[in-house]
Design a protein that fits this description.
Its EC number is 3.1.6.1. The protein is α/β, with parallel strands linked by helices. It has helices spanning about 5-15, 15-25, 50-60, 75-85, 85-90, 100-105, 115-120, 185-200, 235, 285-315, 350-355, 380-385, 405-415, 505-520, 525, 530-535, 540-545, 550-555, and strands spanning about 30-35, 60-70, 125-130, 150-155, 165-170, 175-180, 205-210, 215-220, 240, 325-330, 355-360, 370-375, 415-420, 435, 440, 450-455, 460-465, 470-475, 500, 500-505. Strands 6-5-4-3-7-1-10-11-2-12 form a ten-stranded mixed β-sheet, sandwiched between helices. The chain has a four-stranded antiparallel β-sheet with strand order 13-16-17-18, covered by helices on one side. Helix 3 packs across helix 10 (about 285-315) and helix 8 (about 185-200) runs parallel beside helix 10 (about 285-315).
Length: about 600
């Protein structure tokens, strides 16, 4: 089903010749389009339910299977996505003030220092429609207006997550309600209007299309009034994030679809640490509800799938396919029933941080697939490279290889790690976890702060985390891909375990030292954290660091480890323990990171 109808498609075809002529007379740099979904999973097969995405993106581009967000919640992840910086360097760590949201983005000076501003300075026209940041609302939309956009049409809170009651705000115009219209369809119309504006300007453009699907539906009246202090547990629990609403034409699709019954689906024994290890097994009623929730997510994505189809029809009609890169990704992943969890995100589990990334464009292998490690910090550096802009020194990521040669070289040369971090709450989504009993929420977690590493090398695949409770997790994901068995020893009386055919006592000091670097890294040290520990350049991976020549250094000299003095709702440095190794690095003295 086409979103805008045959008449508009024919009109686009009729004007294609003029548009092609205008572009050929101007800048020959490529156009760049980003499709950014909201909370889309990789590990529950949502992409497999999008045949048009497969047709245009997966079959005609390259699928990056080991792509990660660095903070598994909307606003911090999106700020990282558009700045190329980890959340500990943007200081936007939550979805609402005082620690996050659009007001925090502005107060940190980022409204003048993010991708669209830089692209405009480089001669690109820039366009955006859909969700930009949380707490960008009907009250603060023009105080200030998001900078850097040639033309824009933003979704605004508190109506952002209402599939049938969205409010959009175009350029400097007053917000407009679209009550009764389906949000993704409205967004598609706006996106194609912006595309036509971009083509008419006759110079290279950047366009983002950011629908809310498959995020939960949230009624506007449930949002607490904006303020600068943290919301209480009771206030947050009143924000009922319920089943996504599909378009009417999709509401009966996939009647037999269920959450994949993987090994970590509602397991017989709890897994994880901190609050996770105390979760009860889900009831049969909750499992049924979660399956319904999952099915609604798949249905909600169908309008996005149709939008992708129409986008490529229009690009073809404008003659732009040969000079346009299209990037498809999500802000973060999602879990439903894994590890006994209700619907939600915010955890370090693979379901929450490993997300779709598909790129199509000139020189990109057709039907390609790669396991090189990439992260959201790499997206802006990649766009800079495509646009011919020199990378900034404060980028925490590096450009993603896009052609066959670059992808082959990356297998042996690219960094193997991802910095993962989170501060504050873990909130459930769905009706089973919201009712209050004597003023106390059934499910509310405010100690969900952690620092973590994902390491994927030739012979290892690890997740290591330290929580604000100072509990640790270590998963060997070669033998335990669903993160069920935490092998970190918690008691001195436990027999020592092995990993990588080595005792943990040898491997853990390396992980502790690496995490100490990445937890507060900046710029180049985020891309190559081993250079802080081994400035001679002879160590570029965990495998290199495990050389016996370095045993004394890691096991005796490096004594500072990641720890927390207190669980906080935001990035409060004073509560986060040591910030530097405080010791000589191997082979030479280095005072700080």
């Amino acid at each position: 089903m086409k979103l805008l109808g045959t008449a508009l498609a024919l009109a686009a075809l009729t004007s294609a010749v003029d548009h092609q002529h205008a572009l050929k007379q101007g800048d020959s740099r490529p156009n760049i389009i980003v499709i950014l979904t909201d909370d889309q999973d990789l590990h529950m097969q949502s992409v497999e339910y999008m045949p048009l995405l497969k047709k245009h993106m997966i079959d005609q581009g390259t699928y990056y299977k080991k792509h990660y967000c660095t903070t598994a919640i909307c606003c911090p992840s999106r700020v990282t996505l558009w700045t190329g910086k980890n959340a500990h360097n943007t200081n936007v760590t939550d979805v609402h003030p005082p620690y996050g949201g659009f007001p925090k983005f502005v107060s940190e000076g980022l409204n003048k220092n993010y991708l669209p501003v830089w692209l405009q300075e480089a001669g690109y026209s820039t366009f955006y429609t859909g969700k930009l940041f949380n707490a960008h609302n009907v009250q603060n939309w023009n105080s200030p207006h998001p900078a850097g956009w040639t033309s824009s049409d933003f979704l605004l809170d508190p109506f952002t997550y209402e599939y049938l009651n969205a409010t959009f705000q175009r350029n400097q115009d007053e917000p407009v309600s679209h009550e009764g219209e389906y949000s993704t369809d409205v967004l598609a119309q706006k996106a194609f209007g912006l595309l036509e504006e971009a083509v008419d300007l006759g110079k290279p453009f950047f366009l983002t299309m950011a629908p809310i699907a498959p995020h939960s539906n949230v009624a506007a009246q449930q949002f607490p009034e904006p303020r600068s202090t943290p919301f209480t547990a009771a206030e947050l629990m009143q924000v009922k994030m319920t089943t996504p609403i599909p378009a009417q034409r999709h509401k009966d699709l996939f009647p037999g679809a269920k959450v994949p019954r993987t090994a970590n689906f509602n397991p017989d024994k709890p897994s994880g640490v901190s609050w996770l290890k105390h979760l009860d097994q889900l009831s049969a009623e909750a499992v049924q509800y979660n399956d319904d929730y999952y099915r609604a997510r798949l249905q909600a994505l169908q309008a996005v799938d149709e939008m992708v189809d129409e986008l490529f029809e229009r690009l073809a009609s404008y003659g732009l396919l040969e000079n346009t890169y299209v990037i498809y990704t999500s802000d973060n992943g999602f879990h439903i029933s894994q590890h006994r969890l209700p619907p939600g995100k915010e955890c370090g589990f693979e379901e929450d941080i490993n997300i779709p990334l598909i790129i199509r464009g000139p020189s990109i292998p057709v039907g390609g697939e790669t396991d090189i490690v990439t992260a959201h910090t790499d997206i802006v550096p990649t766009i800079f490279k495509l646009a011919g802009i020199k990378p900034r020194e404060d980028f925490d990521g590096s450009a993603i290889p896009l052609n066959k040669t670059g992808l082959q070289q990356a297998i042996g040369e690219r960094q193997e790690h991802v910095n993962v971090e989170y501060w504050g709450n873990a909130l459930p989504e769905g009706k089973h976890w919201f009712s209050l009993d004597d003023g106390k929420p059934v499910f509310y977690v405010n100690n969900n702060t952690y620092k973590a590493l994902r390491l994927i090398g030739k012979d290892y695949n690890l997740f290591y985390s330290v929580w604000c409770t100072n509990e640790h997790e270590l998963y060997d994901m070669v033998t335990d891909p669903y993160q069920i068995n935490n092998i970190y020893h918690s008691a001195p009386t436990e027999p020592e375990r092995t990993i990588l055919n080595l005792p943990l006592s040898k491997v853990l000091p390396r992980l502790d030292a690496l995490l100490m670097v990445t937890k507060s890294c900046k710029g180049a040290t985020c891309v190559n954290p081993w250079s802080v520990l081994h400035p001679q350049g002879d160590v570029k991976s965990l495998g290199d660091a495990l050389n016996t020549n370095f045993d004394a250094f890691y096991m005796l000299d490096v004594k500072e480890k990641v720890s927390f003095d207190k669980c906080e709702l935001g990035y409060i440095v004073e509560s986060e323990g040591p910030q530097a190794l405080g010791l000589p690095v191997f082979g030479q003295h280095k005072e700080d990171l």
